[in-house]
């Protein structure tokens, strides 16, 4: 009789990728000219040419994985418009429009809503409450996880739940470096997530432990390079290359990491997920 060696949880599991449709915005007008999160230093600035090259590599990575990428025209004077995730929340063909916290980004909400209306989405809600789209709303099969504490208001969680007809679970963010939920957590598919516990209040950590007992937990070092700002299609994980430990953990759990360098965009506090709005 042979005794098989115990497998690590999740190891060897068959991960299945699903083809996605993303909306992106070329960072032609990218710059760090104001500071609305701790990553942004207007004195240090950022290099738009370098940002465009890194962003092009991200777009190519999605195309190489077989995903579709739609493009919205960048608008001069909106340096953060590259962060398409903040532009809306699109679930089941319905669009919950963004309403930005900071005046510097106010004009982006209508720009994204207008693009979505023009591209076949007729059910677009102009939100009453402040919310920054997929920056703070992450969609799983059976629920939506929603961040609050820095940008999106809890009232917006309720508004989104009512409009989309999906359960929305509120999570409290407590560390200003992780000011959007998508800087601290990403969905892995199959009802699981990866996250950095230190970004959440004790109560929200307990909620995450209860909902996701099999979650991948990331450490401070990987979180601090925005390693949690990743995009998973069910198998492939497009992730900042500097998140070395998290990349190894993902590999060990049967995912295929696709490392990218978005160091220039990180100067504005963004990573792969920030640049990517999923159209569902
Ligand atoms: N500078 C932008 C801001 O502070 C970065 C947004 C990043 N987007 C995201 N989905 N986390 O609003």
Task: Describe this structure in a few short sentences.
With 280 residues, the protein is α/β, with parallel strands linked by helices. The chain has helices at residues 48-64, 108-118, 154-164, 202-211, 220-223, 244-252, 263-266; strands spanning 21-24, 68-71, 88-91, 94-97, 124-125, 137-139, 144-148, 168-172, 185-189, 192-195, 216-217, 231-232, 236-240, 256-260, 277-278.
Structure description:
This protein is α/β, with parallel strands linked by helices and 280 residues long. It has a single domain (21-278), classed as L-arginine/glycine Amidinotransferase, Chain A, CATH 3.75.10. It contains 7 helices and 15 strands. It has helices spanning 48-64, 108-118, 154-164, 202-211, 220-223, 244-252, 263-266, and strands at residues 21-24, 68-71, 88-91, 94-97, 124-125, 137-139, 144-148, 168-172, 185-189, 192-195, 216-217, 231-232, 236-240, 256-260, 277-278. The strands form 5 sheets. A 3-stranded mixed β-sheet has the order 2-1-15, with helices on one face. The longest helix is centred in the first third of the chain and has 17 residues, at 48-64. It is globular, with a radius of gyration of 18 Å. It starts with 20 loop residues before the first strand and ends with a strand.
């Amino acid at each position: 009789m042979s005794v098989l060696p115990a497998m690590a949880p999740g190891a060897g599991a068959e991960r299945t990728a699903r083809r996605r449709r993303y909306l992106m915005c070329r960072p032609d007008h990218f710059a760090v000219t104001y500071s609305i999160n701790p990553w942004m230093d207007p004195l240090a600035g950022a290099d738009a040419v370098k940002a465009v090259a890194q962003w092009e590599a991200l777009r190519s990575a999605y195309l190489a994985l077989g995903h579709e990428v739609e493009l919205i025209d960048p608008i001069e004077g909106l340096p953060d418009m590259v962060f398409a995730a903040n532009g809306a929340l699109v679930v089941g063909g319905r669009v919950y429009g963004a309403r930005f916290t900071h005046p510097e980004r106010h004009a982006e909400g209508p720009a994204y809503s207008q693009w979505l209306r023009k591209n076949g989405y007729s059910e677009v809600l102009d939100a009453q409450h402040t919310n920054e789209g997929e920056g703070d709303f992450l969609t799983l099969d059976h629920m939506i996880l929603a961040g609050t504490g820095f940008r999106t208001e809890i009232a917006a969680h309720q508004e989104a739940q009512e409009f989309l007809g999906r359960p929305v679970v509120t999570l409290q963010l407590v560390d200003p470096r992780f000011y959007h939920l998508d800087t601290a957590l990403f969905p892995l598919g199959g009802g699981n997530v990866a996250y950095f516990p230190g970004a959440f209040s004790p109560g929200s950590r307990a909620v995450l432990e209860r909902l996701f007992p099999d979650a991948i937990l990331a450490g401070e070092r990987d979180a601090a390079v925005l390693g949690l700002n990743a995009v998973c299609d069910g198998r492939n994980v497009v992730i900042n290359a500097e998140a070395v430990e998290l990349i190894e953990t993902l590999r060990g759990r049967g995912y295929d990491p696709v490392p990218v360098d978005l160091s220039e965009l990180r100067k504005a506090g963004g990573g792969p997920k920030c640049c990517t709005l999923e159209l569902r």
